[in-house]
Amino acid sequence: MLGVDRRAVQNFDWVLSGLTLALVAIGIGNLISAAHGSDEVLLSPEVRRQLASLGVGCLALLVTVSIDYRHLERFAILIYLATVALVASTLIFAPVTRGSQSWLVFGSLSVQPAEFAKIGLVLAMARFLHRNPPEEVRDLRALLVPFLIVAVPVLLIILQRDKGVALLTLLIGSTYLPFLYIPFRIWAATFAAGLAGLPALWFYALEPYQRGRILDFVDPSRDPLASGYQAIQSRIAVGAGGVTGSGYMEGTQTQLNFLPTRHTDFAFSVLAEEWGFLGGSLVLALFLALLLWGLYIARNSKDSFGAFIAVGVVGTLFWPAVINVAMVLGLAPVIGVPLPFLSYGGSALVVAMIGVGLLLNVSMRRYVF
Amino acid sequence: MNHRLRVADSAAFERQLGLAAFVIVLAFGIFLIRLFQLQIIQGDALRARSERNSIRTIRLAAPRGEILDREGRVLATTRPAFGLQVIPSELRRPDLVYAALGQLIEQDPAALRERSGEPRGARRFQPVRLASDLTWDHLARVESHRYALPGVLTDIQPRRHYLQGPLAAHALGTIGEIRKEQLETRRFARYRAGEVIGQSGMESVLESHLRGREGGLNVVVDAAGREIERLDEVEPEAGRTAVLTLDLDLQQEAYAAFESDASGEPRRVGALVALDPRDGEVLAWVSTPSYDPNDFAGGIDSATWKRLTQDERRPLQDRVIAGQYPPASTYKAIVAAAALQEGVIDPNERLYCPGSFRLGRRSYRCWKRGGHGDVDLREALVRSCDVYFYQVGLRLGVDRLAFFARGLGLGRRTGVELPGEQAGHVPTSAWKSRRFGEPWVLGETLSAAIGQGFNTATPLQLAVAFAAIANGGGLVTPRLVRNLHARDALSLPSGSVHRERVPVDAKHLARVREALVGVVQDTGGTGARARVTGVAVGGKTGTAQIVGLEQIEGLEDDEIPWKYRDHGWFVAFAPAEQPEIVVAVLVEHGGGGGAVAAPIAQRVLARYFEKRAPTIARAREAGSDAGR
User: Fold this and answer.
1) Is B419 within 8 Å of B318 (Cβ atoms)?
2) How many domains in chain B?
3) Number of inter-chain CB pairs under 8 A, A vs B
4) A302 touches chain B (CB under 8 A)
5) Which of A38, A248, A269, A275 should one mutate to test binding to chain B, selecting the residue with the greatest count of B CBs within 10 A?
6) Chain B residues with CB-CB distance to A224 below 8 A
7) Is there a domain that residue A274 lies in?
8) Is the pLDDT of residue A184 over 90?
């Protein structure tokens, strides 16, 4: 079961590896600048922690690649349940930090189980769709299992009071919606129900600060010094980058501390300011290529389990990237979602590497039969 | 192996993948266009701005609320202070800039340079403050040369200003930068590092009212730091005004009375507190030596700080609440009230004072060596006879005495708003065996009965105890805040004025009061120097010994070293018929209370009644019977 088949090695996916390597390298380089403090240490503690996480991520990638993904099918439910249990355990063990219970702390190590739940979610959904080949849905009961697979972790994350991550998990689950062949009238009904539920969502589900962020997005000058501030400063930072950027470590907007959380949520605006349109569009192109390559892997997969794993992994990378970049560019309200590979955060990086590992796994075994 | 389905063969799956690819391409296409729009279309303007100009967020500090006296006179306000800053990254020729600045503001260029240091990394973009309170002339000179000094900024910051300087320093308190450990507490959860907060006195008590709300603005500035355009602005909101119960006139009189008297005596060290016995409102609050709270307003310099902390007379200590002294003979008023309530003495019973009292093998002296002869309760208080109270003390016993002393507010905090209050001490036999593992001895009861030995009290506690005697038995909580208002005059609900009733009946308190009036008004009374023309004053002197009488035997007063001299007390109330003011005075190492403390109380009382002429007219009629 362990070990890599010779044919698999021959079919090593150089495109995917290259794209990943480029994004990881850019991410670390950008973090060095973004997390550069006022002291003269080149590698701030954040950078050192991120490098350590990268090491763990590479290890996790190698392990993921070396197990034939078709064996994973048997463990999919187990992995799913384990990750969900991990999320549930935060409600008991995790300390409340900044109002939410998202982090399990082991000494100096802290882990964000919600990140790992994405992998469990993808494997469970892929297994379900593989076992129940999609056909026209006639009975809503057929949707109960996929609904539960997504709803359980989402609800648990809502209980952690981490609504940004809950939304993200919901979106990742929704990646599979087009593959369930849900008839148009159900779509229409769901849409109507959602629209009707929007006011209730606005008043009961959102915290006042979250409502504020959405209002700030509609009208950033509403509170230019508080929550609208980040959005404005991010746009100025990106714009100040121009074509070629202000140069590495020279971004005045970012180095001047205008941008809060610049090494986490606003990492892309640091990159855009310092590397300009050239750097920004390069990173966007790398992401685009990676995501399309993921779909290409899904298309060429020998079986539907592999195909749906690939689709899911594309979803786990696509949604945070879209939300984050839209926020940085002032196209979406400020939601605290990290950009894969670029934002500081160990759990997210490890999970992204596991995702790439799954893609590589499916890709390398497309001729193995 | 599971070969159920090759999804890729399914046309439907292909179609859905195509849809996904389309969504992805669409999203990233939009991003690319947006990036192009921000960085290339709008970017031209923004980039030009980022090279030669920059956007700065300027915090606009909220002016701190004013503190007024009870008649609306300003005690603490906020004035503009002109500051000077440089941004190291924008200095073209630092040496020349510092030399020029040194000349303009008449300071040593090397010192200015040292103040800015040599910041590296991101810190070189941050403004460094070189001066925070420039004179108008210096500011004008810098401003007129600003065109030649890129990277030099001037600003206006609100600055706390205490109009009366050291006059009411301990009551008003000081402001200062928030400390690291304060930032971590819940109370300051919404503060930033570097903010200035009330650190002591009413400034600290009223912090949340005085603070106001910080504003800010984003401005585009050119390379010389000149404002080109204002982007967003949020006006700061001024803090609320606080009206204190203090009366500036009495405060001034009290402070001046400590400064020196007509004979040019050196400055007195001590404390004075005046309050209204009816509701506990504090009218004057003085602790000397004092300090100038203005020294703290812009961050205190180390030389001043060192001088204040190393002065052996401890100017920073608020003696009104933190100075604990033996109450000495002022305590006799409380012993008398306790004895009457317990019925251990008949007010007309006469006890003989031969000048000393023998207990076991020891002899305890009365302060008057010749003795007072046969004295009743009234005469014993008027002439402050120790021997009389030794005997009353023995009849009461230390624990019953302690019960009444606590009942009148001694040995526990008064609950005044100001922080740092000490509780003083009222000894009991149980306390002594717990503390020292030794039983209480009768000789110590004698000390306790004249307020010596283990007894200590703060000036404020004695003021509160005498207020209870004066108002017929209500223990007041002293307070300094009259009302708090923003633009509209919003008064605080005053709440209950009396904390509790003291355990002594009003008729006994009336008898004590009558005797205390004798202390001041009778011929031969120890408090004669507190007399105020036209007003009947009551009070009690006290002289707290620092060392045994034997050690200074035979020395003239001015031959005794300062630190061995007695503490002098005087606690007064007036007018006798319906007291409106209680004044407690303590003079450290000043000598006898009747000689040094009573005249200080007298000045404050005289000033009070001078202001209340109609009351004096009434008092004069009554006063003609009561005494001289």
Assistant:
1) no
2) 2
3) 162
4) yes
5) A38
6) 218, 231-232, 234
7) yes
8) no
Same domain, B516 and B553: yes
Is B38 in contact with A300 (Cβ distance < 8 A)? no
CATH of the domain at B239: 3.90.1310.10
Burial B576-604 (b: 16+ CB within 10 A, else e): beebbbbbbbbbbbbbbbbbbbbbbbbbb
Distance CA A104, CA B396 (A): 66
Residue A239 to residue B35, Cβ atoms within 8 A:
no
DSSP assignment of A285-312: HHHHHHHHHHHHHHHH-SSHHHHHHHHH
Distance, CA of A327 to CA of A337 (rounded, Å): 9
Residue B565 domain-assigned? Answer: yes
Q: Express each pLDDT in A251-267 by its tens digit.
A: 665 554 455 567 778 88
Express as a percent the part of chain A with pLDDT over 90: 33
Q: How many CB atoms lie within 10 A of CB A256?
A: 18
| Residue A236 contacts B, CB cutoff 8 Å | yes
Contact residues on chain A for B20, CB-CB shorter than 8 A: 175, 178, 295, 311, 314
Q: What is the ipTM of this complex?
A: 0.89
pLDDT in tens, A190-229: 788 877 877 777 777 676 667 777 776 666 555 555 555 6
- Number of domains present in the structure of chain A: 1
Tokens of A264: 């986490």
pLDDT recorded at residue A336:
78
Catalytically annotated residue among B329, B429, B447, B494: B329
Strands B67-68 and B241-244: parallel
Asked, for residue A369, whether it belongs to a domain, the answer is no
Q: B329 an active-site residue?
A: yes
Asked whether residue A335 is domain-assigned, the answer is yes
Distance from CA of A303 to the nearest CA of B (A): 5
User: Hey, are the CB atoms on B24 and A288 less than 8 Å from each other?
Assistant: yes
Which of A181, A329, A342, A367 is the best substitution to test chain B (most B C-beta atoms within 10 A)? A329
Residue A62 lies in a domain: yes
Same domain flag for B285 and B206? no
Residues B472 and B621 in one domain: yes
User: Which domain range does residue B92 map to?
Assistant: 64-115+128-244
Our CA-based measurement puts residue B113 at a distance from the nearest CA of chain A, in whole angstroms, of 20
**What CATH number did the domain enclosing B349 receive?**
3.40.710.10
Dump strand ranges (E) for chain A. 104-106, 109-111
Task: Count the helices and strands in chain B (H runs, E runs).
Answer: 23, 22
- What is the average per-residue pLDDT within B466-473? 95
Same domain, B232 and B253: no
Contact B39, A242 (CB under 8 A): yes
* Closest A-chain CA to B121: A38
Say whether both B457 and B605 belong to one domain. Answer: yes
Q: Which residue of B has its CA nearest to A220?
A: B232
Q: Same domain for B374 and B449?
A: yes
Closest CA–CA distance from residue B115 to any residue of chain A (Å): 18
Please judge whether B1 and A369 are an interchain contact, meaning their C-beta atoms are less than 8 angstroms apart: yes
Whether B204 and B353 share a structural domain: no
Shared-domain flag, residues B229 and B260: no
Identify the pLDDT of residue A368: 61
